[in-house]
Specification:
Layout lengths: L1 H10 L2 H7 L18 H20 L3 H17 L7 H15 L8 H5 L10 H22 L2 H4 L5 H6 L8 H4 L2 H16 L1
């Protein structure tokens, strides 16, 4: 999934548009030193990021590529604070966690090539680490939605859903204002509970 998202980023020309065409980049506190490199290097880093995403997904040289993926994904995220997206932050957090998880010990190319015996069990801390990560994500996403714009105005879903009324089958449903309210409240309840 990360690879496909990165492909879309590249295909739409967003690397140049977001990182090179802007004269000024807003920085995160404490990360003022993170700067945009020249065009060829930036594209090289992005292609390395894409390759590392594939390697992590297939479990190929997992320990090395999980570190590369975390460092490069976080680098691109830190280049400009105006492009912040909570999903990107979550990917960085999960990528950091993946560095320590033994995700390559079964059903991976590492396991196949290095002829490791696949493990049928994992240490409890690995399961708890993932559970805690996802629990925090959903809980705080739900808390962030408990505010008037989200619950009383159904924003931004009212805008987003109206822009998708051309979708087959469900497009007409997205045109109803009630749909935005149901999804806003449902999203908040799903996240918090």
């Amino acid at each position: 999934m990360a690879f496909m998202s990165l492909m879309r980023f590249y295909h739409n020309g967003w690397i140049k548009e977001q990182f090179l065409d802007n004269a000024f980049h807003f920085k995160y506190f404490g990360f003022y030193w993170v700067s945009v490199v020249e065009l060829n290097v930036l594209y090289g880093l992005f292609f390395l990021l894409m390759a590392s995403a594939l390697c992590v997904a297939f479990g190929l040289l997992y320990r090395i590529t999980s570190v590369v993926f975390f460092v490069l994904f976080t680098y691109f995220e830190l280049l400009d604070a105006t492009y912040y997206l909570n999903h990107y932050y979550f990917i960085s957090c999960c990528a950091f966690l993946l560095i320590f998880l033994p995700a390559h010990h079964a059903f991976s190319l590492d396991q196949k090539f290095f002829r490791w015996k696949p493990k049928k069990e994992v240490a409890a801390w690995t399961v708890y680490a993932l559970r805690i990560q996802f629990t925090l994500l959903y809980f705080f996403a739900g808390i962030a939605k408990i505010q008037p714009d989200w619950l009383l105005e159904a924003m931004p879903l009212r805008i987003w859903l109206k822009a998708r009324t051309d979708l087959p089958l469900i497009g007409t449903l997205l045109d109803y204002e009630a749909t935005a309210y149901i999804m806003s409240w449902g999203g908040m309840l799903f996240d918090v509970l």
